[in-house]
Write a structure and sequence with these properties.
three-stranded mixed β-sheet; 111 residues; alpha+beta
Length: 111
C-alpha cells in the first residue's frame, strides 16, 4: 500500500541521516553511541513490524500495517467487522512479538 511505501521511504531517509552521523569521523563518542542505539532500535522495530504483519496475514488478515514507536504499537487492519475474537488474535500476536502491554496497543479497523 501507499502507506507502507511512504513508511519505508521515511525510514530509509532517517537511517541515511543516522549513518552520516555514525560515519562522520568528527562525531564524538556519546553522539556516536546514541546514533548507533537509534539505528539498532529502528532496525529492530522494522523487523518486528514485518514479522507481525506476516503472522497476521497468515491468520487471515489481508491488509495489515503495523507501526511500532517507543510508547505504542498501532495496528491498522482492513476489516469492516472487527470482532472481539479477531481483536484478541491481533493483541496476542502483538504482545508476544513486542512484549508491549495491551493498553499500549491500538487496533484501528479500516474498510
Amino acid at each position: 500500500t501507499d502507506y507502507k511505501v511512504e513508511r519505508e521511504t521515511t525510514r530509509q531517509s532517517l537511517l541515511a541521516q543516522i549513518d552520516s552521523v555514525i560515519n562522520n569521523t568528527n562525531t564524538d563518542k556519546d553522539t556516536l553511541a546514541e546514533a548507533q542505539k537509534m539505528k539498532l532500535n529502528i532496525s529492530e522495530n522494522m523487523e518486528k513490524e514485518m514479522l507481525i504483519e506476516g503472522i497476521l496475514k497468515a491468520k487471515g488478515f489481508t491488509d495489515v500495517i503495523v507501526t511500532i514507536s517507543s510508547e505504542s504499537v498501532n495496528v491498522v487492519v482492513k476489516d469492516s467487522e472487527l470482532t472481539q475474537g479477531k481483536v484478541a488474535q491481533i493483541l496476542e500476536v502483538v504482545k508476544r512479538e513486542t512484549s508491549e502491554a495491551a493498553e499500549n496497543i491500538k487496533i484501528i479497523p479500516t474498510v
